[in-house]
Amino acid sequence: MPLANSSSTSLQDNEEIVIRQIVYHLPDGQPFEAEKENDDDEKDIFQNNNSRHEMRIGGGAELAVYSEEHLSLNEEPEEEPYRLKPISALQRNLRKFLRYLTQGLLMICWLTFTYHLMRYPEREEEMVLLSFPPQMAIIYELPLDLQGVGLAMKLRGLFSRESFQDMKVVASQEAKKSFLSYVLQGSSKDLLKTKNISLVKHLFINENSTSLSLVEKVMEQIIFPETSRKFQLLFRSKSMEDISLELFVTPVESGQTWIIIWGLALLITIYLLMASDLLHRTFAAILCSSLVIGLVAAVHVRPSLEDVFHGMEFDIIMNFFGISLIMEILAEAGLQDYLAAWSYEMANGHIWPLLNVLFPSSILLVLIFDDITLILFLTPIGLRLCEIMHLNCAPVLACLIISINLGCSLTPNSSLSNYLIFQHESLKQENLTYGSFLIHLLPASLLTLLQSYTHLRLLFHNSAQIGTKEPLQVERLRRLTRVWRKVSDRMGAYSLDERSAKDTVDTRIRSLRKRLKRLGKMPDPPSGFEEKVLKLRQNFHLKKIPLLMACLLAILVRFLFVILDQGFQSIQISLGWISVLGALLCLSLCNYEDLEGVLGRIDWATMLFISALFILSKMLEQLGFSEAIGAMLENSLANVETEYRLTLGILAIIGISTGLSLLLSNATLINLLLPVITVLAKNKEVNIPLMPLVWSLALSCSLGANGCLVAGIVNVACTGVASKHGYSITFWDYFKIGFLIMLGNLIIASCYLLLAHVWGQWH
Question: Where is the Citrate transporter-like domain positioned along the sequence (predicted)?
């Protein structure tokens, strides 16, 4: 049913609603300019909606319209693949093979975690409260049959974790510290003989703490005597005070090592598919988190839905949502386009003057704003400059990401990883402040900034390397086709009006694909075409000033709240609530009516990606990932001479956190590695200071984010904004630029930390 055949008033109203939803996602600020023969009513619909719903790449300004051939909607051209060069039969077969291979591997992953979720049900943990008098022993009989299985234990009490291994308690330690020992015993059927069937474990009591800590133990390698019929836990208290704890016991299957190996192989496969751009990063993160949940159910205890979502950092999700909402409203005021045109004019049309300003300004801006705010605000400006100057967006956005990652290690609120470090309970007694972050990390940030700028300057010494490799019209048509394809995919087909509008969009896509194929035979644009770019400054102006003022006021209020919270601790509001309150203030001041439209423009895929990674890190922690890393570091440091332990500790933390950041996002590493660092610092046998390791973790999380496209939340947010507007940045486009820069950054940061804390003893 063609859209032009609708003549009733009610139908036109419905059409207007549908078209308004489409225009939110149109490329280049162009209204939906589909022309029809003998149809003036539909043109009026589009023109009336143009003034209000014309959206630009994060800026809202108009774009100089290039001449295009318009296709009548009555024509139905045959669907053709858009390409400039014919694809050989080998390439076509290879693409088909990769598609089928990807689908097969994804099906294997789905079957793996679905099987384990169906096989192992959720178990309600029954808590037992135990109390131990001073210097007494208590026997707790287990109402479980442990023949052929293992035992999962959870102990919650006032424990002090000082080692990743069971420390041998000697007489001197017994006199100085209070501890609780426990052992699993098996008794014969007649209860006359009792034998230890596990090693004796020790938990030190933190008598000065008031917060409960959770200790999980999984006893798998247990040799059960054939005569044992009943099992019990023997607890011995070596404390002068009463000890109370909560006990949870659950039988688990033992001998499931092969499942861990199989799961790791699937995780590596998913990562390779994502790195090859055969799998979307958000879908890959969801698959990985689901797969690890299935592995936890197989080798441990299946986590409940509440436990799964407990691992999410809702503060960070709320922060991203609030900032995204403000930035999408700010886009309609045209501020980003205005700044892009002004920057282009100040740089006299050259790229390197712009990059020369970008790197030092990132250091100054992160002192005020956090990395998510900066990337969501600056990415549309970078995309507009790429369009004006005919640049390839991959190297430009890579420079933007690298500069922000280098500067975001300076303050507690400049990056999400620093914020998690600043808010962590184990570091409260260290009295971390805004100034301590700035003093310790500023020299490293300046040195790595200079190194990165030099590297990029040598890499792109010829500014033509940053330009587009294809003719301007070809590159622009590719982007237009991608964005129109996104518009079509987001439209429903539940009513006749929606189907007709979707057919109109699909017709537009076929028209663009036909033109893209013809452009392979067309000459380059005339020389006068470039002169039009110089006039763009006249078209980029600020509009909707009240809306602009409301957004800027909301950003200012959010900044003040962050300073009051982290600088003076005078308000009890988390970072997530501060961002949401700022977004609500912006909506209230401008009385924004089209809330559905602005919510549709928010990058929900990035928020889902962040959530899935936090769940993944929580499940890895339950699998004993942090325990394994801590035990490995503890053994390595204990076998090194005392004067070299701090050197090895700093280099090990930098290497491990950087390697993991290439697989997980940098913010999710904090919950995995910060507990490892605090336990190492408490271990008297290792005897290593805490703060040098904390600064090593903060620097490596920020600098390691430059390694690949999924190593940092800033990277994912930037590519999400670019993808939403039709600009494609592949994994390898960024990797070949950022990875070598990251290696140089880590070398400089390691040298700085060794000089400051090993040689200079700054701590």
Answer: 271-699
Same domain, yes or no, for 233 and 137? Answer: yes
Q: Rounded to whole angstroms, what are the CA distances from 117 to 253, 262, 292, 294?
A: 14, 16, 11, 6
Residue 262 CB partners (closer than 8 Å, separation 6+)? 112
d(CA 336, CA 344): 12
Phi, psi (rounded to 5 degrees) for 486: -65, -40
- Backbone phi and psi for residue 435, each to the nearest 5 degrees, phi listed first: -70, -35
Domain presence at residue 117: yes
Residues 162 and 242 in one domain: yes
* Residues 248 and 132 both lie in one domain: yes
> How much is the CA Rg of the chain, to the nearest whole Å?
30
Residues 468-511: pLDDT tens digits? 555 555 556 566 666 656 666 666 555 666 666 666 766 666 66
- CA nearest neighbour of 30 among 387, 408, 450, 386: 387
Sheet of strand 243-253: strand arrangement: 128-132, 243-253, 149-157, 213-219
Which residues on neighbouring strands pair with residue 677, listed in sequence order? none
Identity of residue 363: I
- Distance from chain centroid for Cα 586: 26
Angle (CA) 93-98-104 rounded to 5° is 125
Q: Per the structure block, which two tokens stand in for 543?
A: 């509009």
196 and 48 housed in the same domain: no
Strand blocks (E) in 334-375: none
Give residue-wise pLDDT tens across range 163-199: 666 555 433 444 466 777 888 877 766 666 777 777 7
Are 286 and 303 within one domain? Answer: yes
Residue 421 in contact with residue 395, Cβ under 8 Å? no
Cα angle 571, 309, 129 (rounded to 5 degrees) comes to 90
Same domain, 133 and 187: yes
**For helices 9-23 and 496-519, what crossing angle results, to 10°?**
50
Check residue 391 and report its DSSP letter: B
Q: Are 154 and 218 in the same domain?
A: yes
| Phi and psi, residue 296, nearest 5° | -60, -40
pLDDT value at 651 more than 90: yes
Hey, how many other C-beta atoms are within 10 angstroms of the C-beta on 207?
A: 13
Instruction: Give the chain's mean pLDDT.
Output: 74
Per DSSP, the three-state class of 188 is: strand
User: Both tokens of residue 283?
Assistant: 């879908």
How far apart CA 488 and CA 513 sit, in angstroms, is 15
What is the DSSP-derived secondary structure letter of residue 149? E
What length does the chain have?
Answer: 763
- Give the domain extent around 115: 89-121+258-310
- Please name the amino acid found at residue 33: E
DSSP 8-class letter at 467:
B
Measured distance CA(21)–CA(491) in Å, rounded: 9
Half-sphere exposure of 365 (CA within 13 A, CB side): 19
Using alpha carbons, list the distances in angstroms from residue 95 to 274, 278, 368, 561: 16, 10, 47, 52
Q: How far apart are CA 32 and CA 55, in angstroms?
A: 11
* Cβ neighbour number for residue 457 with a 10 Å cutoff: 12
On whether residue 343 sits in a domain, the answer given is no
Q: Do the domain assignments include residue 65?
A: yes
How far is it, in rounded angstroms, from Cα 589 to Cα 154?
Answer: 50
Residue 520: which of 484, 468, 485, 470 has the closest Cα? 470
Do 185 and 210 have their domain in common? yes
CA angle (608 as vertex; 603, 613 as ends), nearest 5: 130
Q: How many other CB atoms sit within 10 Å of the CB of residue 656?
A: 20
**Count of domains for the chain:** 3
Residue with tokens 């290497």: 655
With both helix axes pointing from N to C terminus, report the angle between 416-423 and 691-704 in degrees, rounded to the nearest 10.
Answer: 160
CB neighbour list of residue 526: distance below 8 Å, 6 or more residues apart? none
Q: Considering only CA atoms, which of 542, 466, 536 is closest in space to residue 66?
A: 536
